[in-house]
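User: Structure please.
Assistant: Input sequence and predicted structure:
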Amino acid sequence: MFGESVKIALNALVSNKLRSVLTMLGVIIGVGAVIAMVSIGMGVQNKVTDSISSLGSNLIIIMPGAASTTGVREAAGSKTTLTMKDAQAIAAEIAGVNAVAPSVSKQYQVVAGNQNWTTSLQGTTPEYMEVRNLSVQSGGFISKEDVDARNRVAVIGSTVAANLFGNRNPVGENIRINNAPFKVVGVLESKGQSSGGQDQDDMVVVPITTAQERLMGITYIQTISVQGTSAEVVNQVQEDITVLLRARHHLTGDKENDFTVRNLASVMATAAETTGTITLLLGNIAAISLLVGGIGIMNIMLVSVTERTREIGIRKALGARYKNILLQFLIEAVVIGVIGGTTGIALGIGASYIISAVAGWQTVISLTAVLLAFGFSVGIGLVFGVYPARKAALLNPIEALRYE
């Protein structure tokens, strides 16, 4: 009887092709929208996570100035509370620290031959490469000897290399930074854009002593990047660094810190939570169209029951029972959900790839989202098909036979 009910349901749908397609359209659009929206949300989530991870693993950032200040806010880098001795003390006295890289930065115009490019200059130490997960494409990185001797050497990002040297290998070439000559000793591997859209390859790295004394004329440092030995010790390292710097800066009692310690693991967790909420919101908004599609199924099934009242009466007169009629119309509703859901999956996956190709957005197809959307479409067909099916099954056979 089940197989016979399926055949009757399919025949009823085929006999009204246009109406069946229009009924399925709400489900198709709903399922496709859920999959596409969730894929966009997950793509954003992955991009933000990868971008934060690209800054370095188990990373702690220390910057001058309190986390929150009252009154007029000072410009970034205007605080001068961190020194090289602070960085050296962290490396020597804090347990669980793998590497420490103090740094200073400033925008400069870099000139090579008749080409020039304005970029971000990072003055730092050899540990910067390990702390920030950098790798060298050609040549080498700055060395401890370069820092001690204040050598005029530079490692450039791939964006700077492309704009100043084109397809030539820059290693061994000379560039001028703030009219001072520097020798290019290496080119960094490309890291792409950050989550904020910043080009991570648009930078020049020089020894920190060279940047401080030969270019900027300063003695303080602007950032200290600290890499923990593992993710488990990062929070403890952050607390220990805060205690150490407060002692070194003679901050007692309830005096406010003159520095800020940020743990990128907590930043990543916050970003993941935020983007996860956005993904859920996008999926829920798209799921509303599935609900509308379910109402469409119920509407059409009620019309179908009215049109086939006489048929139902004949079937009942020939011995069809309540459950036979109920099953027949439920199957019709579920078939609409199944076909609509399957087509919607194809539409959603196709839309995700098109969005990725045309808009350049990163999209991630989630198997969980696909299965949930499909299951929801089938469930919608079942739930919204119950009332019309029950109405058909409860029809009085005599009144049904009299129906014109």
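The mean pLDDT is 84.
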